[in-house]
Amino acid sequence: MNRTVVLITGCSSGIGLNLAVRLASDPSGSFKVYATLRDLKAQGPLWEAARARGCPPDSLETLQLDVRDSESVAAARARVREGRVDVLVCNAARGLLGPLEAHSEDAMMSVLDVNVAGTVRTLQAFLPDMKRRRSGRVLVTGSLGGLMGMPFNDVYCATKFALEGLFESLAVMLPPFGIHVSLIECGPVHTAFQEKLEGGLGGALDRADVQTRCLFSRYLVHWENIFREEAQDPEEVTEVFLTALRAPQPALRYFSTNRFLPLMRLRLDDPSGCSFVATMHRTVFPDEPAGAEAGAGGPEAPESSTPPAAPQ
Ligand SMILES: NC(=O)c1ccc[n+]([C@@H]2O[C@H](COP(=O)([O-])OP(=O)(O)OC[C@H]3O[C@@H](n4cnc5c(N)ncnc54)[C@H](OP(=O)(O)O)[C@@H]3O)[C@@H](O)[C@H]2O)c1
User: Fold this and answer.
1) DSSP H helical segments within 231-307, as ranges?
2) Could you tell me the EC number(s) of this protein (predicted)?
3) CB 244 within 8 A of CB 237
């Protein structure tokens, strides 16, 4: 049987790990998965999960791939035995959380490099061959942070918004090549993402003024609540990848949860942004006055019972 060759970035933990093992252990036996990791020393949990799920031999291989390094990406591509990748999953990313002024230049550049430039490097390595073969799927771990702004996630959201633009643009151009792009838009998911935040939680908080630090503390309470109440397991998200993968004509966007769609609609329904900003502010900082800008001039923000998404 000619198996579907899948290559996934960022498989040391979380969504990438789960997706790799899910596909490699699929009862159809129809996937050959290349699970790639920035650092192969971190592959223990992946193999443990593969054993637990009973992945057949030869359904799963690991490769070193650091999206910051185009030579590493090219080397990984060269090691794919089948000489082709049918499904590319752009999953690797890093988070950055805290007041803007608390981020070091290195942390900011690192997150831009991994999340945006790293994704472009990966595409540049794998898309040309898909185009030559006139066939392929690109799946992307998207985020509600790419569809709406979230306080204290400014740079992270900037990177995820960038990916929306990148993939939406490609999706328009690629159909004549038989290539489909799908973003799997995730709300909060229980993974190691928060433990691996670039620069740690909050960054250099002493660089921020007292009021900003106070707002950040309140945001963290909100964030913890949202994660406790709304976060999904990676297994749930993985099934959404499978839905996209099985679709004969895949959509550009799939949502792992409908919970946050009202906020997205609010953004679209009032293009001025006033309604969204006021609603998001009121929900994250319920006792805080929104200030003159949010209150004056713009359309009245509807009451929303929907809390904003957690930040990934
Ligand atoms: N968790 C959430 O709430 C959530 C919500 C929406 C979207 N997402 C998205 O889901 C995706 C996966 O994140 P996750 O939640 O599963 O968190 P995770 O467990 O931290 O996974 C992130 C993966 O990216 C890898 N990575 C980081 N830098 C890399 C690099 N330079 N080259 C290659 N791989 C690199 C990490 O590897 P190392 O271990 O080596 O650093 C890790 O394997 C990300 O795109 C994230 O933005 C997550």
Assistant:
1) 234-246, 261-269, 274-284, 291-295
2) 1.1.1.62
3) no
Alpha helices by DSSP H, listed for the chain, are: 14-24, 44-53, 70-78, 105-112, 118-133, 154-173, 210-230, 234-246, 261-269, 274-284, 291-295
Angle at 191 between CA 187 and CA 193, to 5 degrees: 85
For ligand 1, residues with CB inside 6 Å are 9-16, 38-39, 42, 65-68, 91-94, 114, 118, 141, 143, 186, 188-189, 191-193, 196, 312
Question: Any catalytic annotation for residue 156?
Answer: yes
Among 138, 196, 260, the mutation site with the greatest number of ligand 1 atoms within 8 A of its Cβ is 196
Closest CA to 89 of 20, 189, 192: 20
What is the arrangement of strands in the sheet containing 253-255, beginning at the earlier edge strand? 60-64, 31-37, 4-8, 87-90, 136-143, 179-186, 253-255
> Which tokens hold the place of 172?
């328009």
pTM score: 0.92
> Which residue segments constitute the domains of the chain, with CATH numbers given?
4-260 (3.40.50.720)
**Sequential pLDDT tens for the chain (312 residues):** 689 999 999 999 999 999 999 999 999 999 999 999 999 999 999 999 999 999 998 999 999 999 999 999 999 999 999 999 999 999 999 999 999 999 999 999 999 999 999 999 999 999 999 999 999 999 999 999 999 999 999 999 999 999 999 999 999 999 999 999 999 999 999 999 888 998 888 888 889 999 999 999 999 999 999 999 999 999 999 999 999 999 999 999 999 999 889 999 999 999 999 999 999 999 899 877 766 444 433 333 334 444 444 445
User: β-pairing, 4-8 with 179-186?
Assistant: unpaired
> Pocket of ligand 1, candidates 17, 148, 161, 189: which has the most ligand atoms within 8 Å of its Cβ, to mutate?
189
- The residue written with tokens 């890093």 in the block is 94
Distance 160 CA to ligand 1 centre (A): 12
